[in-house]
Amino acid sequence: MILDCDLLVGRDLDTARRQRPAELADTLREVGIDGGAVASLRALSFHARSGNREAHEAAVAHGWLAVVAVDLRDPLGAEAEILAAREAGIRLVRLAPERQGIPPAAPRVRLLARIATESGATILAEGALPSVAPAFVGLGANVVFLDQHFYDLGEFILLSRDEPGFHASTRLLGAPGAWETLLEHAGVERLVFGVRSGWYEISSVLERFHALGLDDVERALVGHGNLERLAGPR
Amino acid sequence: MIIDVHGHLGPWFFSGNDASTGQDNVRLMDAHGIDVQLVSSVEAVNYDPESGNQALASAIADEPRLLGMLVIDPRELALAERQLESLPSTFVGAKIHTHYARTSPRSGAMADALRLCAAAGLPVLVHTWEAEVVELAETVARVDDVRVIAGHMGGPGWRRSPSAVERTDRLWLEPCWSHAPAGRIRWVLDRVGPERLVFGSDSTLIDPGVTLGAVRAARLDAEEERRVFHANAIEIFGDRVVPGS
Predict the structure, then answer these.
(1) Which CATH superfamily is domain B3-241 in?
(2) Cys-Cys link to A173, which of A178, B26, B164, B179 (CB 3.0-4.6 A)?
(3) Would you kindly state where each structural domain of chain B is located, as residue ranges?
(4) Which domains are delineated in chain A?
(5) Please, which pLDDT band fits residue B19 given cuts at 50, 70 and 90?
(6) A117 to each of A91, A111, A123, A220, how far by Cα in Å?
(7) In this prediction, does ipTM exceed 0.90?
(8) B123 in helix, strand or coil?
(9) What's the pLDDT tens digit per position in B101-158?
C-alpha cells in the first residue's frame, strides 16, 4: 500500500488550477497510490472551517485521512480549528506560514505548534526546513516537513538526533542517495511518502520509491505505516 | 452622499474580524454615512472566482445598497467570459487583484483582462501596490476605452500616483489603506486634482472610518467633496450607482 501524506484539493492560487476530490481519486487510482492525507486549499487560502469540512467529506468519500488546515492569518481561529480537530479525532494539522504570508518565525507559529502538539496532533508543515523548523524545535512535536529539500537534508539529519518526532516527506528529496542517506542516519521511521499528487509529477517520486530496493518492512513503513502511525487510529 | 467603490463581502481570515454577510457591510455603511458600496467577493479574490462571484450574486440580490464587482483572474479569462455572459444586473464593474491572481499590471494577461472589461462596458478596480500604480497606468494607456481605478493608489507607493495619472486620462485613484500617513490625501489631491480621486474604503477588511478620516483630514472644499465622495464614481460607473436608482 502507498499513501501520499500531501494531498490537496481545491483551487491553487499560484497556478489558478483546480483539483476536485473525484479527479484526485482518479489520478491516484491510475498510478497505484491508495490514498493519503487530504487537506483543502480552500481552508489554506480562504476559509478554514468550510475548507476543512470539504477535506473531511473528501476523506470520508474516498477513504483518505482527513487533515485540518489552519489559517495562520487568524491565530485565534487556528487555535479553534486545532481544538476542534482533536474533538473530531483528527490528528493531522497542516501549517503553511509562507503560503499565508506569515513569517515562520512569528510567535503565533510556535505557539500554535505547541497547542497542536499538546492536543496530540502531528503537524504537516509547509516551507523550507531552515525557515520553519525553528518554530517546532524543543516542543516534542511530531512534524512532517512537506517541503524538505535535499539541499537541507544534512540539517534535517542533525536536527533529527534531538527531535524524535521530525519526519521528512519524499517529494523534494530528489538527489541521488538522498533517501538512502536519510534512512541510514535518521532511520526508516522518519521518511514519509509524499508527492502532492496532481500538483507535482507523481512518477518523479514513485519511480524512486519502487527503485530504492527497500525490504518489505521498510517499504511498508515509508509507503504508509509511518503516516498511519502519525495519523493515529482511524 | 457617499459612494464607496472599494468594498468586499464575505468572511476574512484575520482574527477579530467577524464580518461575513451583506448585513455586516450595511451596518458599517450606516455607521459612517455611506449610501452605496461596490463590493467584490472575498472568496473570489482570495480563492476562486468561479464559486465566489456566484455566491456574491446571491448575497447582494436583496440588498440594493450593495452593487457587485465581478472578480476576474486574468489567468482564467474563459471563466470570466462565461460569467460575463450571464452577469446579473446588480453587477456594475469588475475587480482584478494583482497579488492573489499572481498577475503583474504590466503583463499581457492584464491587458487582455482589461480589454475584456472594456468590451463588456465595465469599469475596473485593480489592486495596486508600490510601483504597480504606474505600471497599471501604462497598460491602461494601451487598452482602448477601458476605465480603471487604481485601488489603494499604490499603498505605500502613493507618491508615485501623480506620475500614474499623467500617463492616461482613464485612470482614477482610490486611496484606501490600513495606514494613514499624515497629509497623504492632500498631497495627492493637490497634484492630480479632484477629478481623479474617488473614495473607497476596503470595508469590510478595513473599517471605513480609517480612510474616511484620512480624506476628511485633507479638509476638502465643496467641489472636492462632491467629486471624491460621489460625482467621480457616477461619472465612471454611470447612474446605476446613484442611491435609490
Answers:
(1) Metal-dependent hydrolases (3.20.20.140)
(2) A178
(3) 3-241
(4) 3-231 (3.20.20.140)
(5) confident
(6) 10, 10, 8, 25
(7) no
(8) coil
(9) 999 999 999 999 999 999 999 999 999 999 999 999 999 999 999 999 999 999 999 9
Query: What CA–CA distance (Å, rounded) separates A78 from A116?
Result: 10
**Is pLDDT at B18 greater than 90 in this prediction?**
no
Would the pTM count as exceeding 0.90? Answer: no
Question: Which triple of cell numbers denotes residue B19?
Answer: 464580518
Contacts of A127 (CB under 8 A, 6+ apart): A96, A97, A98, A104, A145, A147
Cβ(B39)–Cβ(B214) below 8 Å: no
Q: Does A81 lie at the interface with B, CB-CB under 8 angstroms?
A: no
Give the alpha-carbon dihedral of A118, A120, A124, A128, to 10 degrees.
Answer: 40
3-state secondary structure of A79: helix
Put simply, whether A17 touches B (Cβ < 8 Å) is: no
Q: Which chain B positions have a beta carbon within 8 Å of A16's beta carbon?
A: 73, 75-76, 101-102
Query: Has residue A135 got a pLDDT over 90?
Result: yes
